[in-house]
Amino acid sequence: MPEPTSFLAVEELDAAETLAAAEAAVRDRRAAEVRELEIALHWADLHEHDPRDDGRPETPGAARLVQVGGAGTPPVQDLCLCELAIARGQHVLATRAVVADGLDLRHRLPEFYAAVQEGRCDLWVARRVASMTRKLDVEAVALVDRAVAEALDEGAGRLLAIAEAKVMEADTDAARAEREAGRHRRYVAVTPTDEFGLRTVIAPVVPADAAWLDAIVERVADALDGRRDLVPDLPAVCSRDELRSIALGWLAHPEDVVALLAGEVEPRGHSTVRRQAVVHVHLHQAALEGASGVARVEEVGPLLVDELAQLLGHARVTLAPVIDLATNISVNGYEHPESVKDRTRLRTVGDVFPHAATISRMTDMDHPDPFDANGPPGQTGDHNAAPLGRRHHRAKTHLAYRCQQLGLARSLWRSPHRLERLVDATGTHELDPAQALELAHPGALAAALDRIGAGQRHRPPAGRRRTVVGGSATSELLLGLGSP
């Protein structure tokens, strides 16, 4: 009997065995993804009761029931998603999306969901269908459910096209109204800086405006092609696409464009128009002392130091005083002073909740050690300040989260169900109970093990109960020492 391919090293497989292993890997992946989804759904099931049913008065900001899925799905407590996100190692909004899609599949697309559970479809496709049908009522979504369940043998692209068509067919009036409403939700977005030091501008516009914008970009590109001295560092061989991108950037300075097209423009940087701007630039001392280096610009991303000139070249630059991050002050009031907020945000970069992604200044400033109005003076300051997004702040305030600030830029977290995490400048780190205990109480674990070792030398006679300490730390040991 041939040996199963799962027990063979990949390099030992022949062609047929490699294909068999590929098929098996797909089945295993789909089964694992379904189990991961079912675990998330079970967590939602455990938190579908109204937290106000316990008889306690409602507190502003406390957990509340929300409907994350479409019509017909059960509600879930909003703040419970924060702890599930920690366990999943992702942002809470990503976890909320998983739960919403799972609830829609289970309650609104049962035929399709059954096929997904059988491993007949990738979960990402199923989640896309769940998301696009969320706006439909229960009767309309049933039409889509039957259609996609019958189209499982199609490729992912065709299946999604069928789902999109059925969504429109299920409610044509709504589809027409949605298209009209979409015209009123136009926007302009600028992505973060990519690895090449560039940002992408995204803007849905009406066809006529798009045509005219394309025409003016072409016209400015033609003008720049004849005046390449106006574009610093432009290579001798420059593609049309690169020149068009540069031309689009020139549109940010309309006075220069007017002068360029009139043949009266001076090289870039000689414009007499100067704008005021507020830019938060973070530089290491080495970058200031050397000829090169990297700067972090808030809301923009990392830039080479010499690229700052392009960012600030058309603005009036005023240097603010250097902020000393080694400073540590405290005050007696509840509100954090602005100087403390600035230093804390500079040290932590953004939200310090486990796996949080927010790096904006638009965060709450929390006391990791809760403020006590009747407590000692000096409770507020650099030593007790943590930026948190509003949802994460609510979760910490109203649920059994514990946060201990370690020094000035590290936070030790314990979730209500004892998930231990360390958040520092390098990200979120999973900890076992012993590691968390050592961080919270340095030396306590070693001292406790020494005491237990001493006790073992005087162990009770045979027959009496003994506690055996494993390689980590037992629950008896941790409970005896207390929790961080």
Can you give a write-up of this model?
This protein is of the alpha+beta class and 484 residues long. It has 5 domains: 5-183, no CATH class; 190-272, no CATH class; 276-316, no CATH class; 330-431, no CATH class; 444-481, no CATH class. It is built from 18 helices and 17 strands. The strands form 7 sheets. A 4-stranded antiparallel beta sheet has the order 14-15-16-17. The protein is globular. The two termini are 56 Å apart.
Topology, pairings included?
Blueprint: H1 15-46, E1 65-66, E2 76-77, H2 80-88, H3 92-108, H4 110-117, H5 123-132, H6 138-150, H7 156-170, H8 172-183, E3 189-190, E4 201-202, H9 207-226, H10 240-250, H11 254-261, E5 275-276, E6 281-283, H12 285-289, E7 294-297, E8 301-304, H13 308-312, E9 315-316, E10 330-331, H14 338-348, E11 364-366, E12 380-381, E13 386-388, H15 390-398, E14 402-406, E15 410-414, E16 420-424, E17 427-431, H16 433-440, H17 444-456, H18 475-481
Parallel strand pairs: 5-9
Antiparallel strand pairs: 1-2, 3-4, 6-7, 7-8, 10-12, 11-13, 14-15, 15-16, 16-17
Which terms would index this structure?
disordered C terminus, alpha+beta, four-stranded antiparallel β-sheet, 18 helices, 5 domains, single chain, 17 strands
Tell me the number of strands: 17
N- to C-terminal distance:
56 Å
How large a portion of the residues is in β-strands, by DSSP E? 5-15%
In DSSP terms, counting alpha (H) and pi (I) runs of 4 or more, how many helices? 18
Structural class comes to alpha+beta
Mean pLDDT: 83
Helix content: 40-55%
Overall shape: globular
Numbering strands along the chain, what is their spatial order in the largest sheet? Answer: 14-15-16-17
- Main sheet record: 4 strands, antiparallel
Radius of gyration: 29 Å
Give the uncertain stretches in residue-range form.
269-273, 464-484
Structural domain tally: 5
